[in-house]
């Protein structure tokens, strides 16, 4: 029996517009699933059921309007929403209730979406896993003993478990792609300068951008179009190219594309990076599938150097900007305190040198990738890890573990490139394994088309079409 959450977000929107389901009915369906299932998953840190139903009734009483009309979503708990607790994953803000709504939330409101609450995130979004001092961790719905990745761990868990049809997220070093790959859904990190209200252009190194998490490539492209088109661009530069991107999710153009394949990461000369066989196999399967679709696929010999010191300096610099007192640093997570203290010890010359090195890395990476429409890499180096695997007391070791888990993520932010993760294979336990496609500057359309091709072409079991990948156990739990 098909339930509402079995439909893609696009199918749910079609049902809403056709009057086959009402905004109140759809919102109630997801609120019911959250109430019954989220205690064991940790996707949400705040559920605003009354406000969501009030908004659903108001939308229902008006003419359908907006690209997301009547569709539920959740705000990442780094994004303020007026009147709703916004904790930033930190006990420092346990009681903070903003009186204004941030653009990342307001844009989805204006598109007709319905916020049902706040999704789980680590403290200030600083880590690639979602375990905090103020609430339960975000868990992988396939195996709740494992974490969901981060920092958009709650958003990814909610989408993977059928608690949301799609979710807005953000990515400063992999925070969309790491959790999406961990739980087997689709995540898009846009180009620097693509999303007006979260472009990356206002931060050191230009790292953090907003983007979507969804169950299908087309659903993710739909939400990306909303995020891109929601505000005028406030800077004198923007990503080249143009949307809308939903049209690219047909896969058209993949046959004329050229894809480079590499399992090299820029951390290889600084950390003990060990690629899990299932991750390597997923890359090989994806390369074969694209070749079968007449995409030109070539091995890519990429040898970046000197990345680790530069990125670590920029990440510490970003943390050092936070207005935290010495007393605050005694209350935050050890990894947060370590990053802030390390960042504050940097000299101006060291920061400027790292930022200059990042610009060189950006230019060299873009030029190295220029002969390809996309570069195919593993999404993660390791499989999902147990809750508590990341060291809670030794911050330096914790940082190293994050790199070992996801060495293919942060360099895409430094280079300002778009990237998408999509599940393509299953491991022996039946858990999805994902790959990453990295595009040219402004090349979202190309990687969306290639990801859609993979989604369509993944073969018979044990590699079913991505939209038919088996769902985690929570998916089928009904009232």
Outline the structure in words.
- The chain has 479 residues and is of the alpha+beta class.
- 35% of the residues lie in helices and 14% in strands.
- The chain has 15 helices and 13 strands.
- The strands form three sheets. An eight-stranded mixed β-sheet has the order 6-8-7-12-13-11-9-10, with helices on both faces. A three-stranded mixed β-sheet has the order 1-3-2.
- α2 (23-37) packs antiparallel against α3 (49-60) and α9 packs across α11 (334-344).
- The two termini are 13 Å apart.
Summarize this structure briefly:
The chain has 479 residues and is α+β, with helices and mostly antiparallel strands.
Estimate what percentage of residues fall within beta strands: 5-15%
Can you tell me the residue ranges where pLDDT is under 50 for at least 5 consecutive residues? none
Please work out how many helical segments DSSP would assign.
15
Strand order of the largest sheet: 6-8-7-12-13-11-9-10
Average pLDDT reading: 95
Instruction: Name the shape in a single word.
Output: globular
Distance between the termini: 13 Å
What characterizes the major β-sheet?
A: 8 strands, mixed
Computed Rg: 21 Å
Number of distinct beta strands: 13
């Amino acid at each position: 029996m098909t339930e509402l959450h079995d439909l893609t977000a696009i199918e749910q929107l079609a049902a809403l517009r056709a009057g086959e389901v009402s905004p109140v009915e759809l919102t109630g369906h997801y609120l019911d699933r959250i109430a019954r299932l989220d205690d064991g998953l940790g996707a949400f840190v705040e559920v605003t059921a009354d406000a969501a139903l009030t908004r659903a009734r108001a939308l229902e009483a008006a003419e359908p309007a907006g690209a997301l009309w009547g569709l539920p979503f959740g705000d990442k708990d780094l994004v303020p929403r007026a009147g709703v607790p916004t904790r930033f994953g930190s006990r420092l803000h346990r009681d903070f209730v903003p009186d204004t709504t941030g653009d990342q939330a307001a844009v989805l409101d204006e598109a007709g979406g319905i916020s049902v609450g706040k999704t789980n995130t680590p403290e200030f979004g600083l880590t690639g896993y979602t375990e905090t001092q103020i609430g339960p961790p975000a868990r992988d719905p396939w195996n709740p003993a494992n974490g969901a990745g981060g920092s958009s761990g709650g958003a990814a868990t909610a989408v993977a478990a059928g608690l949301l049809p799609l979710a807005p997220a953000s990515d400063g070093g992999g925070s969309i792609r790491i959790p999406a790959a961990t739980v087997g859904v689709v995540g898009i990190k846009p180009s620097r300068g693509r999303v007006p209200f979260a472009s990356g252009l206002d931060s050191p190194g230009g790292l953090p951008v907003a983007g979507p998490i969804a169950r299908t490539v087309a659903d993710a492209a739909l939400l990306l179009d909303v995020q891109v088109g929601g505000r005028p661009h406030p800077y004198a530069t923007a990503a080249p190219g143009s949307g809308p991107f939903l049209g690219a999710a047909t896969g058209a153009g993949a046959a004329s594309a050229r894809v480079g394949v590499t399992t090299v990461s820029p951390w290889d000369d600084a950390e003990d990076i060990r690629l899990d066989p299932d991750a390597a196999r997923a890359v090989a399967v994806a390369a074969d599938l694209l070749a079968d679709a007449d995409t030109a696929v070539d091995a890519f010999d990429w040898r970046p150097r000197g990345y680790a010191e530069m990125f670590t300096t920029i990440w510490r610099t970003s943390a050092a900007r936070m207005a935290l007192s010495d007393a605050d640093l005694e209350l935050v997570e050890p990894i947060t305190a370590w990053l802030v203290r390390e960042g504050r010890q940097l000299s101006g010359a060291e920061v400027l040198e790292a930022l200059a090195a990042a610009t060189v890395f950006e230019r060299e990476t873009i030029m190295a990738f220029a002969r390809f429409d996309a570069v195919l890499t593993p999404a993660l180096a390791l499989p999902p890890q147990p809750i508590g695997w990341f060291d809670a007391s030794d911050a330096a070791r914790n940082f190293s573990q994050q790199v070992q888990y996801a060495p293919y993520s942060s360099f895409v932010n430094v280079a300002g490139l778009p990237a998408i993760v999509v599940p393509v294979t299953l491991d022996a336990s039946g858990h999805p394994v994902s790959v990453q496609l990295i595009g040219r500057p402004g090349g979202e359309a190309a990687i969306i088309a290639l990801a859609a091709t993979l989604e369509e072409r993944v073969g018979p079991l044990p590699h079913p079409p991505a939209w038919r990948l088996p769902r985690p156990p929570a998916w089928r739990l009904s009232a």
